[in-house]
Design goal:
The protein is α+β, with helices and mostly antiparallel strands and 94 residues long. It is built from two helices and six strands; from the N terminus they run βαββββαβ. A four-stranded antiparallel beta sheet has the order 2-5-1-6, with helices on one face. It has a two-stranded antiparallel ribbon with strand order 3-4.
Length: 94
């Protein structure tokens, strides 16, 4: 089992969730809606200077679904190439 952590611009949240639920209909996830930070290209701090914000989605997924989650994220990245979208996987125990 893995913990999948997706950090992305809030502008792609609906697209990402929709595709994730289509691909893995039984997926269970938690979202932190307002996440601030600095990425490799820019900052998302919710301030006047850096007004954009990210969100964080995490889900515990079976090993066999890691490739599917990667494919979902890559599809959204391809649709929105200028938005910051990252996925990380952490091995987890039940």
């Amino acid at each position: 089992m893995y913990r999948a952590e997706i950090i992305a611009n809030q502008s792609v949240q609906d697209d990402l969730i929709e595709l994730l639920e289509e691909t893995l209909p039984d997926v269970l996830y938690t979202i932190t809606p307002s996440v601030m930070g600095r990425g490799s290209k820019d900052r998302k701090l919710g301030s006047t200077t850096w007004p954009e914000m990210n969100f964080l989605l995490f889900a515990y997924i079976d090993n066999k679904d890691v490739k599917l989650v990667k494919a979902v994220v890559q599809t959204v990245k391809n649709k929105f190439p200028d938005e910051g979208i990252k996925v990380f996987f952490v091995k987890s125990e039940e």
